[in-house]
Each structure stands twice: as structure tokens, then as C-alpha cells.
């Protein structure tokens, strides 16, 4: 078997087009476009790239983007004061604090300071709780994008064996909650899991989000499985050039899977498209 390669870039672009149409409707009805404010603290090069990509995508969708780039030495009170100002600004519908934050800042305290109605990352404890209780919520963009890709590949996933590898608050835990909400039988594997290979071999859906290049061996994949790779690991190839690889050994996994996402061009573009969808959702909820 050779897997169908899921084109997250094309799927992400299609979602962005749908969001842009919704944005135009919103602007016509309310006399203003939805606004997204992105906050970056420090100069992490990857984060700077992602923030730039978010700004471009937001503007391309017809929304108003404000990027707040703060020095790495910004204190926690200074950051909290900016968030309070954005919370109070009626033209701001979505607020996103790019992660990771510098070590001297308490990430949990900062995420909890964002107005849950403007929390387009879905990281606020209120949105986390709503998702886990099966209530309407702003849902983290990466797992929401993964779920879209899975449902488009498989259709109904009720009762299917799903394995989420990784238990981060950003991807693993919300991914498990989303799969459970679709009635999949969900297992979460993590660094203490014994016999990861046996879990992978049983799974009809695998979502890997650990950040370890090639952790999941292709030979472990159950034939026909839907394989979603969230890992984005920068490695140096034999030619000395840096390249991006996922958590799953791509070629051997592709030979066994039914569907597989590439890295890059799989899950990544869905994250940004999902952010735009969340911003429009937040804007609509705030005017209703
Ligand atoms: N506040 C947040 N911080 C972080 C999030 C998040 O969702 N919210 N996720 C990641 C980084 N991230 C967005 O912020 C992100 C990562 C990757 C991509 C992407 O499109 N990747 C491309 C490859 C790009 C490249 O060459 O580097 C791909 O996979 O095709 C978009 C967004 C951590 N922080
Ligand atoms: Mg910290």
C-alpha cells in the first residue's frame, strides 16, 4: 500500500478562502473587519517567522492584524499590562501570545490573563475546560486542523482506535479531547509509555506531536492507518543542509499507511488557517 498524501497546504488555503468570505460578510454587516493582535516576546527566530506568517495570513483574509514585538527583557507585569489593554480594546477580537515565552515569564499566568472570549489559541483554562466538557469553545488551532484532515480522510471515526503521541497542552491533550468528542477510542502515549510500538500497531489513527525526529518507526504503522505528523524538527541532512522532518519516519510509514501528512506542508499550514477561523468565530461571538 502507498498512502494518500494529505495536502495540508492546499486544505489550509481552501479554509483561508472560506474565512476570507466570512470576513467580508462580517465587515459588511458591522462596518469593521475582525482584528487579531499577536504578541511576541523576544527574538526566537522560529517564533518570529510564525508571527510574520500569521500577520500576512490575517491581512490576506481581510482582517486587521496588529503585531506587538516586545524585547526579550520585557517583564511579566509589562506583558500583563499589554494584555489588559488588548482585552479592553473593542477593535481587538482575537489575542494570541506566541509561545514559547522567555523563562522569566510565567506562561500559565499570561495565558490565563487573556480574555477567554478573545483567546483564539484556545489556551485559557476556561476554553480548555469547555473543550473537555464538550461545550462550544475556542479550540487550539493545530489539533483543530488535524481533526479536519482526519475527518476528511476517514469520514465517521466513531469507535476507531486513535493514538495521540504527546501530552502537551497545545496539541496532545486538546487533540485527545477532540477525537473523544467524535467518539473515537482514544489512547494518549507519552515519554513514560511502555511499548509505544504496540500502541502504534493497534491504531487506525495516529497523531504524533512529540518533537523527536523519526521517533515513530514506519514498520510500526498499522496498514491503512491515517497518520498525522505534527512534529517539526530541524535536522541536518547528509548533504550538510538543514531540513524539516516530522516525528514519524515518512517513507517507511507512507508505504504502510492509508493517509499521511508530509512535513512540511501537512499540519503546519492548518495551524495558521485555524487561527484565522478562530478569529472570525471570536469576532462573530462578540457582536452577537
Ligand atoms: N501561541 C502559539 N504558539 C505556538 C503555536 C500556536 O499554535 N500558538 N504553535 C507552534 C508554532 N506555530 C504557530 O504558532 C506554527 C508552527 C508551524 C507552522 C507551519 O506552517 N509550518 C510549516 C513549515 C514552516 C517552516 O519551514 O518552518 C509546515 O509545517 O509546513 C505554522 C505555525 C508553537 N508556538
Ligand atoms: Mg516560563
CATH architecture of the largest domain: 3-Layer(aba) Sandwich
Number of E-state strands: 11
Mean residue pLDDT: 98
Task: State the end-to-end CA separation.
Answer: 49 Å
- Provide the succession of SSEs: EHEHEHEHHHEHEHEEEEHEH
| Largest β sheet strand count, sense and barrel closure | 6 strands, parallel
Strand order of the largest sheet: 1-11-8-7-5-6
Instruction: Give the radius of gyration.
Output: 19 Å
Structural class, by secondary structure, is alpha/beta
Low-confidence stretches: none
Oligomer: single chain
Query: What is the CATH topology assignment of the largest domain?
Result: Rossmann fold
Number of domains: 2
| Fraction of residues in helix | 40-55%
Task: Report what the structure shows.
Catalyzes the oxidation of 5,10-methylenetetrahydrofolate to 5,10-methenyltetrahydrofolate and then the hydrolysis of 5,10-methenyltetrahydrofolate to 10-formyltetrahydrofolate. Homodimer. This is Bifunctional protein FolD. One of its GO terms (biological process) is L-histidine biosynthetic process. InterPro entries: Aminoacid_DH-like_N_sf, NAD(P)-bd_dom_sf, THF_DH/CycHdrlase, THF_DH/CycHdrlase_cat_dom, THF_DH/CycHdrlase_CS, THF_DH/CycHdrlase_NAD-bd_dom. This protein has helices at 8-30, 45-60, 76-88, 107-113, 125-133, 141-154, 172-181, 196-202, 250-254, 267-287, and strands spanning 4-5, 35-41, 64-70, 94-97, 161-165, 185-189, 205-208, 226-229, 233-236, 242-245, 259-260. α2 crosses α10. The termini are far apart. The chain has a six-stranded parallel β-sheet with strand order 1-11-8-7-5-6, with helices on both faces. A three-stranded parallel β-sheet has the order 3-2-4, with helices on both faces. The radius of gyration is 19 Å and the shape is globular. The chain is 43% helix and 17% strand. It folds into two domains: 31-116, Leucine Dehydrogenase, chain A, domain 1 (Rossmann fold, 3-Layer(aba) Sandwich), CATH 3.40.50.10860; 141-268, 3-Layer(aba) Sandwich (Rossmann fold), CATH 3.40.50.720. By secondary structure, it is an alpha/beta fold. Bound molecules: the ligand Nc1nc2c(c(=O)[nH]1)N[C@@H](CN(C=O)c1ccc(C(=O)N[C@@H](CCC(=O)O)C(=O)O)cc1)CN2 and magnesium ion. Magnesium ion is lined by residues 101, 103, 105-107.
Amino acid at each position: 500500500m502507498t498512502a494518500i498524501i494529505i495536502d495540508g497546504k492546499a486544505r489550509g488555503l481552501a479554509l483561508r478562502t472560506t474565512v476570507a468570505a466570512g470576513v467580508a460578510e462580517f465587515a459588511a454587516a458591522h462596518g469593521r473587519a475582525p482584528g487579531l493582535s499577536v504578541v511576541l516576546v523576544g527574538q526566537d527566530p522560529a517564533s518570529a517567522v510564525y508571527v510574520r506568517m500569521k500577520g500576512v495570513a490575517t491581512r490576506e483574509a481581510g482582517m486587521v492584524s496588529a503585531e506587538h514585538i516586545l524585547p526579550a527583557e520585557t517583564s511579566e507585569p509589562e506583558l500583563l499590562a499589554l494584555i489588559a489593554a488588548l482585552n479592553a480594546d473593542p477593535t481587538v477580537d482575537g489575542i494570541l501570545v506566541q509561545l514559547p515565552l522567555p523563562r522569566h515569564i510565567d506562561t500559565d499566568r499570561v495565558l490565563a490573563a487573556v480574555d477567554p472570549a478573545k483567546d483564539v489559541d484556545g489556551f485559557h483554562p476556561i476554553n480548555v475546560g469547555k473543550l473537555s466538557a464538550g461545550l462550544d469553545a475556542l479550540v487550539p488551532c493545530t489539533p483543530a486542523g488535524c481533526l479536519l484532515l482526519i475527518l476528511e480522510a476517514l469520514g465517521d471515526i466513531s469507535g476507531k482506535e486513535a493514538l495521540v503521541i504527546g501530552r502537551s497542552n497545545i496539541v496532545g491533550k486538546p487533540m485527545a479531547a477532540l477525537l473523544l468528542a467524535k467518539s473515537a477510542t482514544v489512547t494518549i502515549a507519552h515519554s513514560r509509555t511502555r511499548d509505544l510500538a504496540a500502541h502504534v500497531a493497534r491504531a487506525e489513527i495516529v497523531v504524533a506531536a512529540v518533537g523527536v525526529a523519526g521517533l515513530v518507526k514506519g514498520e510500526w504503522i498499522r496498514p491503512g492507518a491515517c497518520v498525522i505528523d505534527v512534529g517539526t524538527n530541524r535536522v541536518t541532512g547528509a548533504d550538510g543542509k538543514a531540513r524539516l522532518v516530522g516525528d514519524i519516519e515518512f517513507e517507511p510509514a507512507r508505504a504502510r499507511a492509508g493517509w499521511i501528512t508530509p512535513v512540511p506542508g501537512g499540519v503546519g499550514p492548518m495551524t495558521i488557517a485555524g487561527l484565522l477561523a478562530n478569529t472570525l468565530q471570536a469576532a462573530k461571538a462578540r457582536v452577537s
